[in-house]
Design brief:
Strand content: 35-45%
Number of strands: 13
Low-confidence stretches: 113-123
Strand order of the largest sheet: 1-3-6-7-8-13
Largest sheet: 6 strands, antiparallel, barrel
Distance between the termini: 24 Å
Helix content: under 10%
Number of domains: 2
Length: about 180
């Protein structure tokens, strides 16, 4: 499941028990659980360790729960974090859609490819296949997948501040059932 942060989150200001809001970026179905695009996903801070001289890291663990359309709740594990994009387009997509010069030859021999140009509400964003522990487009952030309290993923940085901007994309997977 891909979710996005609707607002910037200053993770270093959170304490255990605080809520972290996320919104489902595209509809998702897993077994009997369906979650519609735009639905909220509840995140809750389960641990926080501020930067200190001894640890030299800021670390936070957030547990996520999705409310299914059938009224069940599914526990989710954060597996990847991707930087925000503009209208679902990567920086490379935007760069490739721009003219390569001035004048009639700027777009090449075939003329401008109007379909490649960025447009408002150009359609559903295509999300990549996330790799376990992957952090894409964000510097100095690491993930320890399912290594925190309650099986939550630890997000850490050697910096004193840990911020995620609005639109940051999070890849979540269902937690294994414990019997």
């Amino acid at each position: 499941m891909w979710v996005k942060l609707p607002a910037r989150v200053d993770l270093e200001k959170l304490t255990p028990g605080d809520a972290v809001a996320a919104v489902v970026a595209q509809s998702w179905v897993y077994q009997t659980c369906g979650v519609a695009s735009g639905s909220p996903v509840a995140g809750q801070v389960v641990s926080f360790s501020p930067w200190s001289d001894s640890s030299r890291a800021t670390e936070i663990a957030i547990a996520f729960i999705a409310a299914c359309q059938n009224k069940e709740n599914v526990r989710l594990i954060l597996i990847a974090v991707y930087s925000a994009t503009e209208n679902g387009k990567t920086q490379m997509d935007l760069a490739n859609s721009m003219p390569q010069g001035i004048g009639p030859g700027a777009y090449g021999r075939s003329g401008p490819n109007v379909s490649a140009l960025p447009s408002v509400d150009a359609g559903d964003e295509i999300f990549p296949l996330a790799k376990l522990g992957e952090v894409n487009g964000l510097r100095r952030i690491a993930l320890a997948v399912a290594r925190g309290p309650q099986g939550a993923t630890l997000i850490s940085t050697p910096d004193k501040k840990l911020r995620l901007s609005a639109g940051t994309r999070l890849a979540l997977v269902p937690a294994p059932h414990s019997n």
